Amino acid sequence: MPSDSVRPSHIRSRRARQLLATSLAAALLPFTPAPASAAEAPTNGPGTAVALTTQITEDACPWGYTTSSTVFFGQDQANSGVPNRDLGNGCTIMDVIWAEAPFANHGRFVSTVSGLANALQQDDLITKEERRSIVRAAAHSEIGSTQPAPGTRALPDDRIGLVLYTVRATMATAPEATLGALAACGYRNAEPSGAVNNFYGRTATALAPLVADAGLSVPSIGIGLGDLRNNLHGVIANARTFGAKYVRISGSGSWGLHDYAEVAATLNAVGAELKQAGITVAYHNHGFEFTTQSGGVRGYDVLVRETDPNLVAMELDLYWAVSVGADPVDLIQQYPGRFPLFHVKDMAADGSFADVGEGVIDFARIFVHSTMAGVDYYLTENDSPRPDGVSSACDSYANLRALRY
User: Fold this and answer.
1) Burial track 184-203 (b if 16+ CB lie within 10 A, e otherwise)
2) How do residues 313-358 score in pLDDT, each as one tens digit?
């Protein structure tokens, strides 16, 4: 077992100390040759952590961050690029770091990461350059930072859009008039949803020119999980037809944690193929993903932790998260850089849907964390628009444009 001198003094919480001590202890055990099949498996970094993992049958961090991703604290310079290695007992570098959350401030976060990285380098689990990359990424992140709220900023108009589900009633019968009305009230982006070659009864090839003729861009399209699994070429073709750089799916309220893990694996696999086509796959939540399951784990946590942030994005539906008591700000702080798409939906006092800006959700409090979240587009939506979809959508647009944060 490692001495106290190799443990970062900054790891304050008992759980974090246990994780780090157990992980480093496993990595420092005397090496016993693995069976031939395991011994021949390639390693993914310095030290013997991967080989030793084959000797440990119990995962000390079930449903934690997997080795499929990098040590990631947000986009761009906050992504270290260092593999998120297993430390020997199923716990990865990211598991040990986030066991210490929440962080009192940004300095405490960087200090915690630095201490852990120093210990990992000392025990030959990462290289000197990898240690520097991890600490540098932590310093460039916004984790633990106070977000300024001057109340003077407006959302960029070219980043506001509408989820066309709001106007589904007229998209099937009068798409040109519907899209024209949305553009006339100010929208510049739209997110159609459906299935491959079936968007409101039209193929992508038929609908895309109508959207473009109205002066609207399509940054994202909604399709089904079955499309991703069985017709990926069709997904890519449809996305390219619309000019979309994101394709998103939704889940099922019947899933257990193992189902979420399987979907995460699917998203990683198709995400790699889509990335080669210049497209990012995203997952859109409802409320059921935030239900606590075995071990106090939520399905949403499995999806985020087990997907590669370089390949898979999250489309955060603000209404559905808030409706079940999940705080969007907490999610952003826990999973920085994972949310390029927001579904901006409001909630009435009775829990029903409301036009954006006419309900109880404090969007300004959320939007001040936009940089940390990595938001690219803000897409308004109302699942039950009144008196009609276009009127509701235009009210939401006007209110969102007037919002300051």
Assistant:
1) eeebbbbbbbbebbebbebe
2) 999 999 999 999 999 999 999 999 999 999 999 999 999 999 999 9
pLDDT at 13: 47
**Cα–Cα distance between 147 and 133 in angstroms, integer?**
24
Among candidate residues 31, 9, 11, the one with its CA nearest the CA of residue 19: 11
CATH architecture of 157-402: Alpha-Beta Barrel (3.20)
Which residues fall within 8 angstroms of residue 33, CB to CB, at 6 or more apart?
A: 39
| 190, 191, 192, 194: CA torsion to nearest 10 | -170
What are the residue boundaries of the structural domains of the chain, listed by start?
A: 4-140, 157-402
Sheet holding 160-163, edge to edge: 190-191, 160-163, 377-380, 341-344, 312-317, 280-284, 246-250, 220-222
Is pLDDT at 40 greater than 60 in this prediction?
no
For 310, the token pair is 């370089």
Pair 306, 261: CB distance under 8 Å? yes
Gap between the Cα atoms of 302 and 325, Å rounded: 18
Report helix, strand and coil shares of the chain as percent, to nearest 5: 45, 15, 40
Q: How confident is the model at residue 99 (pLDDT cuts 50, 70, 90)?
A: very high
3-class DSSP state of 195: strand
Provide CB contacts within 8 A for 37, sequence distance 6+. Answer: none
Residues, the chain: 405
The pLDDT of residue 21: 56
Residues 6+ apart with CB under 8 A from 342: 315, 316, 318, 373, 375, 377, 378, 379
What is the tens place of the pLDDT at every residue in 155-197? 999 999 999 999 999 999 999 999 999 999 999 999 999 999 9
Provide the pLDDT confidence category of residue 59 given band limits of 50, 70 and 90: confident
Question: Among candidates 97, 111, 120, which has minimal Cα distance to 24?
Answer: 120
**How many Å apart are CA 302 and CA 258, to the nearest integer?**
9
Q: Is 194 helix (H, G, I), strand (E, B) or coil?
A: coil
Indicate the pTM of the whole model.
0.88
